[in-house]
Amino acid sequence: MRLTGDDDPVWHRFGPDSTERRMLERLSERFAVRLRPRTLLLPDGTRVEVEGVDEDNRFLAQLVANQGAYKSHHRNKVMADMFKLVWLSRSILPGGQAILCVSETVAQAFSGWVATAARDLGVEALLFRGDGEIVPLLGHDRGGVTGLKQKR
Q1: Least confident of 94-98, 127-131, 144-148
Q2: What is the side-by-side order of every strand in the sheet holding 124-128?
Q3: pTM for the structure as a whole
Q4: Which letter does DSSP use for residue 31 in this model?
């Protein structure tokens, strides 16, 4: 397996003012690593896009930055990204920390069994708040979403 892309060209997916780029920059600060988009090329020729990987392959991040009204396809994206992260961290880059960072809109996907599955599978779910802060999304009490501000 090879990693492709390096330095500035890897930002090709995320413009300088994109939410995804800000998410990766904040995640990089949080984990004290340089997370950038990467393409993994598997031995069989399959290409796998990962939205954030550090140079040592210790951190693997997927981002769901949708804004606006919550829709069912947001939950489907969360589940697909969780599956991808678990597969990558167990089969392709063993031992990598699986991180799923989502916007406030998408945080609603982490209810019921999706939240439990994320915890049980070791996916670190983080919330990218509107103010740019990143906070843990799931509590340890199986109570669901914790990082959202309460609306009054």
Answers
A1: 144-148
A2: 2-4, 36-41, 47-53, 59-64, 97-103, 124-128, 134-136
A3: 0.84
A4: H
